[in-house]
Write a structure and sequence with these properties.
- The complex is a heterodimer.
- In chain A, a hairpin with a 2-residue loop joins strand 1 and strand 2.
- In chain A, strands 1-2 form a two-stranded antiparallel ribbon.
- Chain A is an all-alpha fold.
- Helices cover about 70% and strands about 0% of the residues of chain A.
- By secondary structure, chain B is mainly alpha-helical.
- Chain B has two domains: about 60 residues, no CATH class; about 200 residues, MetI-like (MetI-like fold, Orthogonal Bundle).
- Chain B contains 15 helices and no strands.
- The radius of gyration of chain B is 27 Å and the shape is globular.
- At the A-B interface, helix 1, strand 1, helix 2, helix 3 and helix 4 of A face helix 2, helix 4, helix 5, helix 6 and helix 7 of B.
């Protein structure tokens, strides 16, 4: 009886998690076999991976899409880190009129479902002549993650001892110098956490490039793969799903490897983004 | 005189900086300049991509802007809103949205709670492993994640689900066509459950172990401990996750777009946010109607603004907004 009681939670967790394991198992099995019946492969092949070297229909090379994904994720991460760490510093360390208002705004925007603004942002991008450009999409992505970024960074700045900054200021540093030379090094773990989190989000992003960067030279990996799977269930039998599985694995593998090493950081943001 | 008041004020707040040697007076103007410098990039972005779009959404919703009228857009008052009220599809969309939000929310919070309780109950190393596994869908690109479900629910002999159910005597389905809602809710739920799981886990870990040990000494069963001690103590996190996810589910449509595009058939799984997107941004039906789509989005924007302001009050975020400790320099 005691053994059963001890084993029960493990068993329940296994059963609940089984669908997840099966879902992801197919990606790995499917990518290396000509066809699968459920999870049972019909032999082994590497030919699913030929898209790495040869064109896939009239699509641009998948490496172009991979480069675009990297540029989008990397570019927006850098901008997000800069903008949120300056704003968070001001909100955490400076006393000024409108501080309360700005803090409240950040919190409201944090809860606000910004995806509802997609239609209007389309016009903003058109007006700024940034429609169908990587910079435009990177800016929108920065904006959507900014409330979380500011809030997370503010949490890290709040935890830095006042004496350190005070000493720097008394030694004649300006606020900007104190921020760059003293504060930024102190919140390096926070910057790392936010960077990991932001990069993964940017790499995965689908809707923004799909809507705001339609030209195929701008395709990211998400839009590329969507162009192959768009037929959905109806076409599933007519498409070679081994190739699609391989492409999907190609896309998700960097994230999975990244996740293995940076899980700690991601958890920090997910738990901290709410606690403040 | 004011100088003295300030020093008194500082002394009251217990700042070491009020020592005579390090007398540092607040110079509001200089701090204001610094704040302006540090905040202006963020302010500009918020202005361009939050404030302007909110206003634009409402403005476009009052016009007849569409592909047909692009050159000669006119203000047409509340006609688009009246059209929403009169449209025969509105009730269908509304029902779909309610089903989607309530079912997914129930799964998310329920499963999040179960996972948090179980993974904190077992050995920590194994618990961490399971929590990492459940985080996978959240960090998987939505396009790939939708692909996994499309394949798993494909008709026999290809789909994994049919392969598992076949031996049990169940007939083969293309589940995405026959049970689109079931697939959508589960696919969304397996992503959404992890938020609750993480937040509840840290809340449960914060409960002093004495509480639970005392109950065990008194002979309480595991179920009683969960029901009487753990659940009441993590009431706020549960409410927070519920409130937060209600709002984000209401506005979300990405996985539905990827899995069914609102089909199969006519608006079978079309939710409000997807409907707005289809009307305003997708050429699905040939004639894109920005005005009407913006009116649909404006309803969600209004709900979003009101709800997030209420959340701010209810969850007492003000407590997190204490004044900064450095006044001077």
């Amino acid at each position: 009886m005691g053994k059963i009681r001890k084993g029960a939670p493990y068993l329940i967790l296994m059963v609940l998690s089984l669908p997840l394991l099966l879902l992801y198992a197919w990606l790995f099995i499917g990518a290396f076999s000509p066809r699968t019946h459920g999870l049972i492969p019909e032999g082994f092949t590497l030919s699913n991976w030929r898209f790495l070297f040869a064109p896939w229909g009239n699509r641009p090379s998948i490496w172009v899409a991979a480069l675009n994904s990297t540029l989008l994720a990397g570019g927006y991460t850098v901008v997000l880190l800069l903008v949120s760490s300056t704003a968070a510093y001001a909100l955490s360390r400076l006393s000024f009129r409108g501080r309360r208002f700005f803090l409240m705004l950040v919190l409201i925007l944090h809860a606000f479902p910004s995806i509802t603004l997609l239609i209007a942002i389309f016009y903003v991008l058109r007006a700024l002549r940034l429609y169908d450009t990587l910079i435009g999409v990177a800016l929108v992505k920065t904006a959507l993650e900014l409330p979380l970024g500011i809030w997370v960074m503010k949490g890290f700045f709040d935890n830095v001892s006042w004496d350190i900054e005070m000493a720097a200021l008394i030694d004649g540093c300006s606020r900007l110098q104190a921020w760059r030379r003293v504060m930024i090094p102190m919140v390096r773990p926070g910057i790392a956490a936010l960077a990991v989190f932001a990069f993964v989000l940017g790499w995965n992003e689908f809707l923004l490039p799909y809507i705001y960067m339609p030209s195929s030279r701008n395709w990211t990996l998400s839009v590329f793969i969507r162009s192959v799977t768009a037929g959905g269930a109806g076409e599933i039998l007519f498409v070679n799903y081994g190739v699609i599985a391989a492409a999907g694995l190609f896309y998700v593998l960097p994230v999975l490897l990244f996740f293995l090493f940076t899980q700690r950081y991601l958890l920090q943001i997910y738990a901290g983004g709410v606690k403040g | 005189m004011r100088q003295m008041e300030r020093e008194l004020e500082m002394a009251k707040r217990g700042r070491e900086f009020s020592l005579p040697l390090l007398r540092i007076r607040p110079r509001v103007s200089k701090q204001g300049v610094a704040a302006l410098l540090f905040l202006s990039p963020a302010a500009l972005i918020v202005l361009l991509f939050f404030v302007a779009p909110v206003l634009l959404t409402f403005w476009i919703s009052l016009t007849n802007m569409s592909v047909a009228t692009l050159g000669r857009t006119e203000l047409i008052g509340f006609s688009n809103y009246l059209r929403i009220l009169r449209s025969p599809y509105t009730s269908r969309i509304l029902q779909n949205t309610l089903l989607y939000v309530s079912a997914t929310l129930t799964f998310n919070v329920g499963m999040g709670l179960i996972l948090a309780l179980l993974t904190t109950h077992i050995e920590e190393r194994v618990g961490v492993l399971f929590r990492a596994l459940w985080l996978l869908p959240r960090i998987t690109p939505s396009v790939v994640y939708a692909l996994l479900w499309t394949w798993a629910t494909a008709p026999a002999p290809f789909g994994t689900l049919n392969q598992v159910l076949g031996p049990l005597g169940l007939p083969s389905h293309n589940w995405l066509t026959t049970q689109p809602w079931g697939v959508i809710i589960l696919a969304n739920g397996f992503v959404g459950a992890s938020l609750g799981m993480i937040i509840f886990t840290s809340a449960i870990k914060a409960i002093p172990p004495d509480y639970i040990m005392a109950a065990q000494v008194d002979g309480a069963t595991t179920w009683q401990i969960i029901r009487r001690i753990i659940l009441p103590l993590i009431r706020w996190p549960i409410m927070f996750v519920t409130a937060y996810q209600t709002l984000s589910l209401l506005a979300s449509f990405e996985y539905i777009l990827l899995l069914t595009e609102g089909g199969p058939g006519f608006y079978r799984t079309e939710v409000w946010a997807l409907y707005a997107y289809h009307q305003a941004l997708s050429n699905y039906f040939g004639n894109v109607q920005f005005g009407f789509g913006a009116a649909l989005a404006a309803v969600l924007v209004a709900i979003g603004v009101v709800a997030s302001v209420i959340y701010l009050r209810v969850f007492r975020f003000q407590q997190m907004m204490g004044e900064p400790k450095i006044e001077g320099v």
